[in-house]
Amino acid sequence: MTRTSQYRAVPNAPRDPHAERIIAHRGHDRLPSARQVAVIGGGIAGLAAATGLAERGADVTLFESAPQLGGRVASWPLADGRNMSRGFHAFFRQYYNLRALLRRTDPALDRLVAVTDYPLQTNAGLTDSFKSIPRTPPLNLAAFVLQSPTFPLTGLAKVDLPSAFELIDLQFPQSLSRYDGESAAAFLDRLRFPHNARHLALEVFARSFFANPHDFAARELVTMFHTYFTGSAEGLLFDVPVDDFNTSLWDPLGDYLRDAGVTIHLDSPVDALHQTERGWRVGTSTGGGVYDAVVLAADPRTSRGLIAALHGETQQLADLQSRVARRTNAPAFAVIRLWMSDTVHSGRPAFLGTSGYQLLDNISVLERFEATAAAWTQTHGGSVVELHAYAVDAPAAPNSPQGQTIRTALLDDMRTVFPETQNMEIIAEQYLLEDDCSLADVSPWQDHPAVTTGIDGLVLAGDWIRAPLPVALMERAATTGFLAANELLAGWNVTGHDLFSPPRRGLLRRSTLGRTVRHLALAKGAR
User: Fold this and answer.
1) Name one GO molecular function term (predicted).
2) Contact by Cβ (8 Å): 466, 445
3) pLDDT tens track, the chain, 527 positions
């Protein structure tokens, strides 16, 4: 196998000296009296909330609608020793709070392995790599511009400098409202990056939210660029689990929670949520119960439905329901996992981001890092290849004409990117089309629901929930999960969990020199 040459040990601690510790409320070490808390949703947000609460003595009951934990980062077994998931997920070094959650069962993060490169390729054949770029800003940005074939030096003259300076002139969360009403596409238009650099350096971030750049919020784009590139010294390289998500991550965490006294109900979708004089009644098809508090950490559509059905006449509830009603889900995404008759060329990267093809956004060679896939390859002699399209047309059944059109386009893209697959037989295949991710739209940042609701005993968590830190995707889910637990614990005067964040200030706000450059840039932009 090529695994040892492509991966190395995962570091145990953040290397960025500017990473910030977010101090939680200080009070009792544990709850002085029992509190019953329901956590609705067993994805990353719900698991983080359940962990934060159980470790402080709360009596937690977790309800998950699927047969396994992990939510939208779950995996499940298939026949013949194969498995399936909802697509590739990168565990970046900036995911401090998610990694802290995983360390509950894996202190050294031995169940993650480090990817040594993150190549990106356009349909024109241009490829960028972050392997040899320094991690520390601004050296990383300068090195990218100098080394990238997609960013000719002549392109610098066309870049709008005031817009470019915005990428290193952020302060969280104060700067986020600056982009209310602006899409990622509109921001990229005024930035005037060279066309190919725009696709590889920035637009790839937008599509990782399963969104078209014209519908995706500019604030999320600049947040991600800050978090992964211009604001953090962790770099753009990432880690992946050594095996499927549940074997590596969520099953051990489930055992940890059960040992901590958490009751976990799988295959238990919550269909009713009501506030009563005695507390919060949670209803499922098999029963439910009454709880002192609820962490609503289900998928966005389910959470919106439960909030819309709440009864009450308070202004807080009306405001929450109004905000939630304005949220929508992102376009569908497609995942195809293929078990092939032969192996792809040994020089192919384990993960390749793509841009400009019909639908393909990335392609993974799973036997390079996933133990279950590697075992299948060793037995059958073929690669396990996964294709991912982040934003496709409206939801469709995989076997429908529309679903088959998507499948055909992805297979054609694979055979273009990896030509050796043209003559390979597909031994087995799994194909998913899902549309259960929230759209990070251009509506005002303050209009999006936050962890706190103003309603006694109800807090929200998930990657669609507004957070005051530069976090996104899986890390936003973990962070809001811990923040939800901390909010309840603070109300009971119990010490919460300290969190970590990438720097909340951009380069131009960190030093006297930076502030001077910022003022000069703003003055130039005003002329």
Assistant:
1) oxidoreductase activity
2) yes
3) 333 334 344 555 678 888 999 999 999 999 999 899 999 999 999 999 999 999 999 999 999 999 999 999 999 999 989 999 999 999 999 999 999 999 999 999 999 998 877 788 888 776 766 666 767 777 777 776 666 666 666 666 788 888 888 888 899 999 999 999 999 889 988 988 777 667 665 666 666 778 888 899 999 999 988 888 888 888 777 899 999 999 999 999 999 999 999 999 999 999 999 999 999 999 998 888 999 999 999 999 999 999 999 999 899 999 999 999 999 999 999 999 999 999 999 999 999 988 889 999 999 999 999 999 999 999 999 999 999 998 887 777 888 999 999 999 999 999 999 999 999 999 999 999 999 999 999 999 999 999 999 999 999 999 999 999 999 999 999 999 999 999 999 999 999 999 999 999 988 777 654 555 555 555 555 44
Q: Where are the domains of the chain?
A: 25-71+244-328+440-500, 130-234+505-526, 332-434
d(CA 307, CA 158): 47
How far, in Å, CA of 188 to CA of 211, rounded? 15
Other Cβ atoms closer than 10 A to 445: 17
**DSSP label at 137?**
T
CATH superfamily of 25-71+244-328+440-500: FAD/NAD(P)-binding domain (3.50.50.60)
Which H helix or E strand runs over 377?
helix 371-380
Q: Measuring CA to CA, how many Å separate 35 from each of 212, 290, 308, 344, 362?
A: 43, 11, 26, 54, 45
Up-side HSE of residue 452: CA atoms within 13 Å toward CB?
Answer: 9
HEC per residue, 191-206: HCCCHHHHHHHHHHHH
Whether the CB-CB separation of 19 and 276 falls below 8 Å is answered with no
- CB-based contacts of 426, cutoff 8 Å, min separation 6: 338, 339, 340, 341
Structural fold of domain 332-434: Polyamine Oxidase; Chain A, domain 2 (3.90.660)
Cβ atoms of 483 and 451 closer than 8 Å: yes
User: Do the beta carbons of residue 352 and residue 362 sit within 8 Å?
Assistant: yes
Answer for the pair 169, 141: CB distance below 8 angstroms, yes or no: no
DSSP secondary structure code for residue 271 in this structure: E
| Alpha-carbon 33 to chain mean position | 35
Rounded to an integer, what distance in angstroms lies between the CA atom of residue 509 and that of residue 505?
A: 6
Cis before residue 152, ω within 30 degrees of 0? Answer: no
DSSP state letters, 91-118: EETT-HHHHHHHTTT-TT-TTEEEES--
Strands 426-434 and 270-276, by their bridges, are unpaired
Tokens linked to 387: 């294709």
pTM of the model: 0.92
Q: Is the preceding omega at residue 162 within 30 degrees of 0, hence cis?
A: no
